[in-house]
Every structure is written in C-alpha cells, then in structure tokens.
Specification:
It contains 8 helices and 18 strands. The chain is an alpha/beta fold and about 375 residues long. A hairpin with a 2-residue loop joins strand 8 and strand 9. The radius of gyration is 25 Å and the shape is globular. Bound molecules: adenosine-5'-diphosphate (ADP) and magnesium ion.
Length: about 375
C-alpha cells in the first residue's frame, strides 16, 4: 500500500512533575527534587493511511487522540517510534495550538499559511476567502487572544481548508462552533473527500464518524484498540464506552457472549405515538450464561443520544440458548421524529456491553399534540 501517513510504533510519554504534594520544608531541604512520573499518552501505535481515505479517530477523553494528531502534525515529537507523512498537511488542532495570541487574526492567517508553505502572494489571493469563510471580517485586525473559542476555531478551520492541503487533520474542536458553522465545515470536509484528499478526523460524534469515514481507529487508554471499517469501529467504541465508568483491568477485546438476532414489535412496524404505550421484543442467543442488564438507546437523526434507559431497573439472566426479551415502555415521551434504536445487555456495573446491537431498528414517533421541543411534558393544570 502506498501511504500518505504512517505511524510506526509511536509512543509518547509526558513527564509530570508533582511539586504540589511536597511540603515547603521538604522543598527547602531537597531543592529540585520534585517527584517526576512518566505518563504514557500513546503506546506503540502503528497504522498506515492511504491517499484519499477518510479516517475517524474515536476514544474516550484522555485516550490519546489529540496527542496522536499532534505527533502526526509534527507539533509533538514521539518519545519513540516515528510518523512519516507524504504530502502537504494542514490541521486544526486543539484550542490554543496554532495561533499566536498577541497577533491579529490577519497576521495569524499569514503566519500559519506561510508555515504551511504558502508565499505571501498566494495568501493575498485567498485572504478574503479565508476571512469570509470564517465570518470574521469585522474582527480580523483584533488580536486573537480576544477571540471567543468559536471565533478561534472558525479562523483555524478556514485557514486549514483554504491552503488546500493534501492531508487535512481535524481535532474535535469543531464541536465548539455553532451548529450552522459546523454544517458549513462538514460541507467543506465532504468537498475535500470528493476531491480525493486524505482526511483524519477526531470526533466525539460516533454517528458522524459512521456516516463520513471509510475507516476508524479506536484509541483506548493510549493503545490502538481497533483499526478497520468505520461502522465496526463505532461499534467497538460504543461497546467500550457504555456507561460512564471504565472497568479497571478490562483489556480484552469486546466479548462475544451472544448475539442479538432481531428486534420486532407486535404490529410488525416500528411506530409509536407520543404519550402512548410502546412495546418491542428482542431476540437474543446467549452463547454462555449471561447475567446483566438490558439497556436501550434512542438516537435522533442527527446521531444525538436522546435517551439511554436505566440499566439498574432491568436485570436479565439468560441461560445459554435462545431467548426473547420483552420491552414495555408505558409512555413514549419523545416528540415526533425518526429514532435509531440500539439495544444490548450490559454487565453488572452498567459499564460494559456484554452484547450490543447498534441501530437495530428505526422507530417512527408521531406526536398528535401541539407542544414543541424534544419531549412531552404533559403537565396537569388546575386553578385554585
Ligand atoms: N502536555 C501534556 N503534559 C502532560 N500530560 C499530557 C499532555 N498532553 C496530554 N496529556 C495527557 O495525555 C493523555 C492523553 O491526552 P489527549 O491526547 O489530549 O487525549 P484525548 O484527546 O483523547 O482526550 C491525557 O491523560 C492527558 O492528560
Ligand atoms: Mg483531545
């Protein structure tokens, strides 16, 4: 394979000095002996990215995503291993990486474009376009230290795409901008895809990765846990991410304790009415005895999680073999829309999926009332 980005056993350690825990007396007696510990942000990460691929990087907070992007962009040097890049690369990294705070937006545009290899003349030619895309005409001569994070990201993204790099690297900072600007960025990223450019994208939005990317890298506690087709990566990520607590000592691959074979409803159609009862059946084959809790999630059509059910109230105990789990929701509280239904069984702590099926069905909800928003409140009103 001819690659445009290649990471070879990339590891990155940060040295952490914890002066904080030393007493004043201790510091006087033994100056300069603060406790230094090494923190590993990346461990032996290897992969190759081919020209024209769109690769999504998923992982929990602190798993090393931004560190990896910085190593790829050359902002950080790996402690060991190396990154090879073929072609011009421009990136929108974390907030704070990239611009000089004291300089104006204008000066920063020239500075960062020149660092990306553009001459002043060629920046002149696209300057208005950069500022226009960022919608910062009025603030372009203001020092960027006075910019809001949204303004900062708009300018950073605009510079990165306007220099037309062969490889575009975007950290999840895009989520900072307002929705309309995010949509504009996504259009630009899709345009890049059509042009056959290579894109590396960290996103907190797994569904965005699924729809946009060809391939997903999943980082888990500094290690590359998965590298493969986008949809499979999203599944691995979400299986590991279930709940908020991480399971200590669980380093294994996602377990295959069983499968979710089908979801169905009594009427055969996945429709519900706001405020009314709704039912569903989940056919499961357990390959081993499973003790856990049933969980379901509904995502809206933008991939946002609308609800994850409370695992605690839904214990299930399955012997090896085929089972049907009956699910009853007394009142559908979502307003109208189409919702992706994901179901699974999580472990006792609610933190790991034992079996999981992403987007098992699409549920169409109809709302007959006149309220608005996301959910039905159904208040009762009386006058006294
Ligand atoms: N400059 C740094 N000094 C010390 N620790 C760092 C530094 N940058 C990142 N880290 C640590 O490395 C880990 C990975 O960080 P990061 O790559 O930002 O994760 P992510 O982007 O996946 O949230 C985190 O635990 C973070 O605290
Ligand atoms: Mg990050």
């Amino acid at each position: 394979m001819t690659f445009v980005v290649r990471a070879e056993k990339v590891s990155k350690n940060f040295r952490l000095h914890s002066e904080r825990h030393r007493s004043f007396k201790d510091k006087l007696l033994r100056p300069g002996q603060g406790v230094a510990t090494d923190f590993t942000a990346l461990t032996d990460v290897s992969f190759e990215i081919a020209s024209g691929e769109t690769v999504g990087i998923l992982g929990r907070n602190g798993s090393g995503k931004s560190t990896l992007l910085k190593c790829i962009c050359g902002v950080l040097r790996p402690t060991s291993g190396q990154v090879l890049v073929r072609g011009t690369l421009a990136g929108l990294l974390e907030l704070g990486a990239g611009f000089q705070p004291e300089l104006s937006g204008r000066d920063n545009v020239y500075l960062s474009a020149s660092m990306l290899g553009m001459s002043t003349k060629s920046v002149d030619a696209i300057f208005d376009e950069i500022v226009g895309f960022a919608e910062l005409e009025q603030f372009i001569d203001t020092p960027v230290k006075f910019y809001s994070s949204g303004m900062y990201v708009r300018l950073g993204f605009s510079v990165a795409v306007s220099v037309e790099p062969e490889i575009l690297v975007v950290d999840e900072v895009l989520a900072v901008g307002d929705e309309r600007f995010q949509a504009k960025c996504m259009d630009r990223i899709r345009q890049f895809q059509r042009d056959g450019r290579t894109i590396l994208l960290v996103s907190h939005n797994a569904d965005q990765v699924r729809t946009l990317c060809d391939r997903t890298l999943v980082l888990d506690r500094s290690q590359l846990a998965f590298d493969g087709p986008a949809a499979d990566g999203v599944r691995v990520f979400r299986e590991r991410l279930m709940g908020t607590t991480s399971v200590v000592g669980d380093d294994g691959p996602p377990r295959s304790a069983g499968t979710i074979d089908a979801v169905s409803t009594p009427s055969g159609r996945f429709v519900a009415t706001t405020g009314e009862k709704w039912e569903m059946s989940v056919a499961v084959t357990a390959h081993q005895a499973i003790e856990g809790h049933f969980v379901m999630e509904l995502h809206n059509d933008r991939g946002e999680l609308m609800v994850r059910s409370d695992w605690e109230v839904a214990p299930v105990s399955l012997s090896p073999g085929a089972h049907v789990i009956h699910v009853d929701a007394p009142s559908m509280s979502l307003l109208d829309g189409a919702y992706q239904v994901s179901v699974g069984i999580v472990s006792d702590l609610g933190s790991q999926a034992v079996i999981w099926r992403e987007q098992a069905a699409v549920l169409e909800v109809t709302y007959r009332g006149r309220g608005s928003g996301l959910i039905q409140l159904a208040p009762r009103v009386r006058v006294s």
